[in-house]
Design a protein that fits this description.
single chain; alpha/beta; Rossmann fold; 2 domains; nine-stranded mixed beta sheet; 15 helices
Length: 503
């Protein structure tokens, strides 16, 4: 006999007040539950807790912050540093000058002078008096010191959990992980556990990430999510999972703006694909990408250009000198250029910026210049490959035309690459310097294309006042891509017909 399965019951949720966190939790925290927020000192626990209470105040929900380690003045100063006021939120300080005075009546508690049971009862009395809907308890490390043994500590936490469960309030317990081997007992007691981590870097700013370790009754996004802690609070960047993002788009081929280049790659750039532009420094990779971007802008599309290496003024001036003026499109808002410092950027933040450009701005073409600098923003090569796989799959599924620039080491002869991304690329354009007739020239070849029948030839490419010019196939040369060609014919080089234009 088949078993009747009841539809899942949806528990009411409340917003955390932390941008990005509610999306990871699938809509926020379940109301009237107790949650553990853990992290070492400086990881952002207090900031997250304040955002939680401030969101409650915004929604008309009363809040209470119980502190055993920080003073009310310190809490208000911390809030003010973010531009926040804590007016309307009850602050219950268990340490005060009055409480430290042995001659005064002890109306507030001091954890080093009062038994654990009295501390717990003091918390309960304050909750009964203020009847908050949101509570922050900061921090459990003081309770752990008072308890002196795990059994007593667990009993007191269970007592608090039972008390709060009958008071219709949602509670965040903060823990700075001072226990020697972690406190897994807290994990078992709490309805959910959120872990905040910070990782110092050898150079640049420290990296911060968040993990939802446990959340009963909630389908959440697991794994690590980067977050930033800056003026204004915490912002979490949800880890990109391409499988969760699909869009309907029309497959078509669009021009690069250079007829010879269109012919070489089989008609142009296909929507829903990415193209890797690879070659040594100064060979024309960025100029080629700018030509493609400008053509898209002239078609009426929006373009996002992520600039890791070059300064924005330099890019604009150099492009204009080659007949590609980007400034009008920048002024109109159709061109978005983001100059990015890889020492300060987390991979999650970058992926979030790209998603916003695609989903909110509506760009049609994206340029990442360059992957070498993006590599420096990653903690390791294996993570770069995983991150790039998700990002490129996402962009392809959104119908984007994506151009990736990858610099190589060396100029003439042997050329090396930091990392192999060829298997992630739908198309590859390979640039090389070569020597001919006493001058250094540039060759280009389409070595891979998954979506079109591209030429197998090697052509000369030249930067001109009108952008880029792609010449005939170098059929009379052997070894062009090695940088050391052997000339076996009389084919004319670009500009040879008019020496005044040779460069």
């Amino acid at each position: 006999m088949p078993i009747d399965v009841a539809p899942p019951r949806t528990e009411p949720r409340i917003a955390t007040g932390v941008p990005g966190l509610d999306e990871i939790l699938g809509g926020g925290l379940t109301r009237d539950r107790i949650y553990l927020v853990e992290g070492t000192p400086g990881s952002g626990k207090t900031t997250l807790a304040l955002q939680f209470l401030l969101k409650g105040r915004e929604l008309g929900e009363s809040g209470l912050y119980i502190t055993l380690s920080e003073t009310e003045h310190e809490l208000r100063a911390a809030a003010a540093s973010h531009g926040w006021s804590l007016d309307g939120i009850d602050l219950f300080e268990l340490v005060s000058e009055e409480g430290l005075d042995p001659d005064s009546e002890q109306s507030v508690l001091h954890p080093s002078d009062v038994e654990l049971g009295e501390t717990t009862r003091g918390v309960m009395r304050q909750v009964e008096a203020t009847k908050p809907m949101r509570v922050v308890f900061d921090s459990l490390s003081e309770m752990r010191l008072l308890a002196q043994n795990p059994l007593r500590h667990r009993r007191q936490i269970l007592a608090l959990k039972h008390f709060f469960s009958t008071r219709n309030c949602t509670v965040l317990l903060l823990d700075d992980q001072t226990a020697e081997h972690g406190d897994l007992q807290l994990h078992s007691i709490a309805h959910g556990v959120i872990s905040l981590q910070r990782t110092p870097q050898e150079y640049g700013s420290q990296r911060r990430r968040l993990e939802v370790i446990k959340m009963r009754g909630i389908k959440y996004r697991g794994g690590f999510h980067d977050f930033e802690l800056d003026t204004g609070g915490i912002r979490v960047f949800e880890r990109l999972v391409a499988a969760h993002h699909h869009a309907t788009f029309t497959y078509e081929t669009v021009s690069t703006g250079a007829p010879g280049l269109d012919t070489l790659i089989g008609g142009g750039l296909s929507r829903g694909t990415n193209t890797l532009i690879s070659g040594p420094s100064g060979v024309g990779k960025t100029t080629t990408a700018v030509r493609c971007a400008l053509t898209a802008l002239e078609r009426g599309e929006k373009v996002a250009y992520y600039l890791f290496d070059e300064g924005l003024p330099t890019l604009l001036a150099r492009s204009k000198a080659l007949g590609m003026d980007l400034q009008p499109f920048l002024d109109s808002g159709h061109l978005l250029i983001r100059a990015i410092d890889p020492a300060e950027l987390s991979p999650g933040e970058f992926a979030c910026n790209v998603r916003e450009a695609v989903e909110n701005v509506g760009v049609g073409l994206i340029v990442i210049d360059s992957l070498n600098a993006y590599l420096q923003a990653m903690p390791g090569q294996k993570f770069l490959l995983l991150q790039m796989h998700e990002l490129l799959t996402y962009l392809n599924q959104q119908g984007m035309v994506t151009l990736l620039i990858l610099g190589q080491h060396g100029f003439i002869g042997e050329v090396r690459t930091d990392i192999d991304l060829s298997y992630l690329s739908d198309s590859i354009l390979l640039f090389r310097f070569f020597e001919a007739a006493g001058s250094v020239r540039t060759a280009i070849s389409a070595v891979k294309s998954r979506t079109s029948e591209h030429e197998k030839t090697i052509r000369e490419i030249r930067l001109t006042e009108d952008g880029i010019e792609v010449g005939q196939a170098l059929i009379d040369f052997q070894g062009v891509m090695s940088g050391l060609p052997a000339y076996e014919g009389k084919i004319a080089m670009l500009g040879d017909q008019d020496p005044s234009t040779d460069g």
